[in-house]
Amino acid sequence: MQYEQRMYARLKFLELMAELNETSFETFFHDLMCARYPEFLDVRTHGRLGDQGSDGLMLHERKLYACYAPQTVNATEIKKKINSDIAKALTKRRGQFDTFVFVHNDRRGMHPEIATVLSEAERVHRPLRFQQMGTRRLWHECLQLELALAEDVLRCQIPIQPVVHGIGREDLAPLLKHLREQRKAADPLMPLPEVDPGKLDFNRVQGEAREDLLRGMRHSHLVDEFYAGTIRAVEHDEVAQGFRLYYEQVRREWPDPEDVLWQLEMYVLGNGSVPPRMQRAAWVILAHFFERCDVFEAPPADWTPSGLGMLA
Fold first, then answer.
1. What is the model's pLDDT at position 137?
2. Is it true that domain 3-154 has CATH number 3.40.1560?
3. Which of 32, 36, 52 shows the shortest CA–CA distance to 44?
4. Residue 68 pLDDT > 60, yes or no?
5. Taking the domains of the chain in order of start, what are their residue ranges?
6. List of residues 6+ apart from 33 with CB closer than 8 A
7. What is the C-alpha separation between 288 and 219, in angstroms, rounded?
8. Which of 67, 124, 160, 216 is the 20 to 30 Å CA partner of 283?
């Protein structure tokens, strides 16, 4: 899909997430996972057998999925549901899975009490692993679909013509706000870290794009500060995964590193015009994930600069 198509699909995905709950959410989940993975088994309820503790099984990766998508979020009820699903899966499906995945429709992210329940379950039931799959990860799966399958899963036609959107990424909006405020309030005389240009040279990032990334790198520690903490760390990993998936897509279409960075900038901001302060914040985010190697490639250990970066 082209960038504009992805943005349109994103809006339709968010509309679906606002509407789907209970059985309709489970149906969407089955449609999505069957479109993505041939080995996914969309387990349905059958008479007295029920679903035997599973809403889906991934054969090769040995994952068991349990869906819970109530109309309103109640942490106490969700904790009961998780514990009930775990107990049922261990009784009915023991030996069939190594990872238990809790799939939910909470667009705000994982409730702290739910994160605690999953963490405790992993401690108690070792070596069984526990994961969660919320709207960010569901969207990441949608991103991997071919256009026809995406239209089927999202239940809409995705237009071929360019669609203009001036909105930024919903899951990055709080981070953008944080960076705008922190960069504005920062002490202009504070020492800023020097930046190693090696990865820039290796990926042939030159000219203005190189300068923008270098400026962003000098403030990228603010992103680490934003994501500090156990719950935030989960969100950090999910956002990083989204960047990586999107980067792998656009680099196949855009061989020039400057074009790839342009596409990634639109991933953060949308394709409408934005104030300069927000654009600078976006480049801090790009620099952060560049440094983490979620986007672009790390040079091999034995690689030495060719002098290319000195010419930029």
1. 92
2. yes
3. 52
4. yes
5. 3-154, 170-311
6. 40, 42, 56, 58, 65, 141
7. 9
8. 160
- Asked if 232 and 226 touch (Cβ cutoff 8 Å), the reply is yes
* Spatial CB neighbours of 251, under 8 Å, sequence gap ≥ 6: 260
The answer to whether 15 touches 142, Cβ cutoff 8 Å, is: no
Residue 79 clears pLDDT 60, i.e. is over it: yes
Summary mean pLDDT of the chain: 83
Instruction: Give the whole-angstrom CA distance, residue 128 versus residue 86.
Output: 11
Average pLDDT over residues 43-60: 69
pLDDT of residue 47: 45
Mean pLDDT over 116-136 rounds to 91
**Taking Cα atoms as reference points, which of 288, 281, 289 lies closest to residue 180?**
281
Measured CA to CA in angstroms, residue 239 lies from 73, 172, 282 at distances of: 23, 8, 14
Cα 7 to Cα 101: distance, rounded to the nearest angstrom = 27
The full DSSP string for 252-277 is HH--SHHHHHHHHHHHHH-SS---HH
Among residues 185, 143, 101, the alpha carbon closest in space to that of 1 is found at 143
- Whole-prediction pTM value? 0.60
Q: In the predicted model, is pLDDT for residue 168 greater than 50?
A: no
Q: What does the DSSP assignment read for 81-132?
A: HHHHHHHHHHHHSTTS-SEEEEEE--TT---HHHHHHHHHHHHHTTT-EEEE
pLDDT at 45: 64
Determine the Cα–Cα distance for residues 248 and 251; give it in Å rounded to an integer.
6
Average the pLDDT over 104-121 and give the result: 84
CB 244 within 8 A of CB 298: no
